[in-house]
Amino acid sequence: MVATNLFDERRRAVMIAAAKRWKAQPPTPATTQVTPSEQARYDARRSSFDQASELKAQGRLPVFVERKMGPTLDWYTLPPDDAARAAGRPVARIVANVDPKVDPVGFATGFMVSPNVLLTNWHVFPDPGSVRGTGANFLHDETASGVARGIIFEFDPDALFFSAEDLDFALVAVKPKAITGELLSSVNFLAINGSRSKILPGMPIRMIEYPDGGPKRYAMENCRLLELREDGFLRYETDTEEGSSGSACYSEMWEVVGLHHASIPKMRGNTILNKDGSAWSPGQPDDGIDWIANEGVRISALVKAFGGLVPTTPASKHLLDELLANTTDPTDEVAKLATPRAPEALSPVLPDPSKIFANTKGNVMGGVTMNFSGPVTIFVGSGVPASQLPQATAAVAADEALEKALRFDPNYDDREGYNPDFLENDITVPLPRISQERDQEMYKENGQIVVLKYHHFSLAMNASRRMQMWSAVNVDYDASKRTSSGRAFFGQDRWVVDPRIPQKYQLGDPDIYAPAKQIDRGHIVRREDNAWGDTPTEIEFANSDTFHFSNCTPQHAAFNRSQPGKQWPGVQGLWGGFENHIQRDLQSGDTRACIIAGPILNPNDPSEDFGTGPVQYSLVFWKVVAVTTRDTNGRRSLRTYGFRLSQKDVVDRFGVEFAPGEYARYQVALSAISDEAGVIFDDVLLRADTHADA
């Protein structure tokens, strides 16, 4: 039997903590306003569900993806009450006894998040001892003939139990067979994932709960999300009562967005107030309290926390692995099915120099040439008639639509970004700033330049040019942090827009990369540099992050590739060759570096209209490599190397330790890069510049 007084004490403590958070940081217009990037992420996610519904109708949606989406897909074709019933089936009343001869007493709510594991609150189950003898009562519903008793399954904390007070959650295994013989698999489970784009402030938030230990109730009226907090909580207006602890919170599309854990009372100091302003005291009914709002724990925060749990037995490891395997975002799988992979660029052929910038009607930029100033010349245009391109694309898409493609981490808000302290040893490599003269060109929100964070790197976008102004990446070539499976491990390349900023600020395939067949999608943050991590998933997601169009710049294949091929005999791509130089240098000794790079977006760069409007393409690119060096006393110090790469010649031989080597001809002072690129490097980098006096 549950110790009700202790449960009430824990519940009250959680309630007071929520009230103190509210008092310290109440919702404000700044925290409740939906930013353009949040709206874009939500719209992209909603679009994915539309695509999933279309794929389901075509019979092309795999069963495992459909199961992850659950009642969400039915939202488009069935009345909300049918979807609600499907969403509520895995929600259980937590009861204090499992004896079939005794009427069960309900005191909380929980819901299945995997075939064998239920999620509820820490204040419901703080330790395994509090679980023993209790059960999960499913389908305790109102029916035409009365309230159904439902099915009761006993909890099994010996198989799996985790709880945490800070996020107020408890995970507990449920025995696979009910006390009356039914199978747990019959109630299904609610798929959860770490996406933070399922709901926005101001939208309806729904709950399925067992208030006062009674039958299931659907709270779908007068419910509104107030705030999504960065500390892992969300606030909302929804009717709840005692016994609702551990309820599932849903978006209007029936995706699970939160775990309800507390109602927020009005307080004076440490005293909870009644509606009449008097002090509330334990033992009095809750319905007299002056409630302000409700608070839940964000599912995205819980999924992240679950990934850090450490099982202690083979049984708990199996159940935890099973749970985590179901937390991937189904919209990522939909993207693979709904977006055919772009075919590889056709083999480039140098155009006739006499056709420079001469458009031929019916061709996709037939004979267009990009002249990069200086010794480097970039040619664009395949001379392939436009009428021939769609058929080739369709053929490739039909054959390759179901092949493995890059898998992207859907949790954009959880990406850690570039770490200035990555080199350790009390050495910092700060991010660059933007010069005052170029500040107005940058993409901003609320007047501030937006720094987009990815796995291991960050970047800032030049809105005028639709390309990045700079990027900064942490690189580690330690073999233990990298996969030995090669590119096949990641799947086919797939470039995507970053949903956090409007697509109109990202240069995409139709603008230049598709029609200009000799132009590569040139990474600024190199795929190989970024594809490292402590787990296969981290490596995979870090690799995929480099395939956002925000990290892409137009580069001619003879410049971008270290081995351009037979089209340019004797040419070794300068950009690709230099990237290989850095990689080889970091594979022995100190394997870490910080690399800051970008295109030089010169206002006088040439432009060409490829059918979607004028596009300016960069003529010059820059890199700053920051590494540490050890003196004779073993002390580490910072060394920086700046390079301006615009020439075609490239060398093949590299030094053992990091040094410019034969690339010295391209090395320039960081101050020179600042003058040309409009980025400002921190004084700590300028002082470490090995070429400052040149």
From TrEMBL:
Catalytic residue positions: H523
Alphabetical list of InterPro entries matching this protein: DNA/RNA_non-sp_Endonuclease_sf, Endo_G_ENPP1-like_dom, ENPP1-3/EXOG-like_nuc-like, His-Me_finger_sf, Non-specific_endonuclease, Peptidase_S1_PA, Peptidase_S1_PA_chymotrypsin
SMART domains on file: Endonuclease_NS, NUC
Keywords, comma-separated and alphabetical: Metal-binding
Organism superkingdom: Bacteria
Pfam families: Endonuclease_NS, Trypsin_2
Residues covered by the DNA/RNA non-specific endonuclease/pyrophosphatase/phosphodiesterase domain: 453-688
GO MF term set: endonuclease activity; hydrolase activity; metal ion binding; nucleic acid binding
Domain ENPP1-3/EXOG-like endonuclease/phosphodiesterase: 454-688
Keyword Metal-binding assigned: yes
Residues binding Mg(2+), per UniProt: N560
PANTHER family the UniProt entry points to: ENDONUCLEASE G, MITOCHONDRIAL (PTHR13966:SF5), ENDONUCLEASE RELATED (PTHR13966)
Name of the protein this chain belongs to: Serine protease
Organism listed in the record: Mesorhizobium helmanticense
